[in-house]
């Protein structure tokens, strides 16, 4: 009988494989009004080693983009 792989172990090994291949770390903004979708995608991207910010309101998207781009220039 084959035992199922735990999700956390699977995500950690995928993140390790990505790091081993020399993937570039990205700064990503995930925006949607569906919190579950944002949180799921953000978790996957973070496990891949990326810096992720989450936004749930359309009115906050432009402010967050400005904040992120000004942080890049500093």
At a glance:
The chain is α+β, with helices and mostly antiparallel strands and 74 residues long. Helices cover 58% and strands 14% of the residues.
Overview of the molecule:
- This protein has 74 residues and is an alpha+beta fold.
- It has three helices and two strands.
- It has a domain of 49 residues: 3-Layer(aba) Sandwich (Rossmann fold).
- The chain has a two-stranded parallel sheet.
- The model has no long low-confidence stretch (mean pLDDT 80).
Strand runs, count = 2
The rounded Rg comes to 15 Å
The largest sheet, given as strand count, sense and whether it forms a barrel, is: 2 strands, parallel
Helix percent reads 55-70%
The low-confidence parts are: none
Gap between N and C termini = 55 Å
The CATH topology name of the domain at 25-73 reads: Rossmann fold
Question: Which range does the strand content fall in?
Answer: 5-15%
Mean pLDDT: 80
Keywords:
74 residues; Rossmann fold; alpha+beta; flat; 2 strands; two-stranded parallel ribbon
What is the topological layout?
Elements (H helix, E strand, L loop, with lengths): L6 H14 L6 E5 L3 H13 L3 E5 L2 H16 L1
Parallel strand pairs: 1-2
């Amino acid at each position: 009988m084959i035992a199922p792989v735990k999700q956390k172990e699977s995500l950690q090994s995928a993140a390790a494989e990505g790091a081993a291949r020399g993937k570039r770390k990205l700064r990503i903004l995930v925006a949607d009004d569906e919190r579950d979708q944002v949180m799921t995608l953000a978790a996957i991207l973070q496990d891949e080693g990326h810096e992720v910010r989450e936004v749930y309101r359309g009115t906050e998207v432009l402010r967050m983009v400005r904040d992120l781009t000004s942080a890049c220039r500093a």
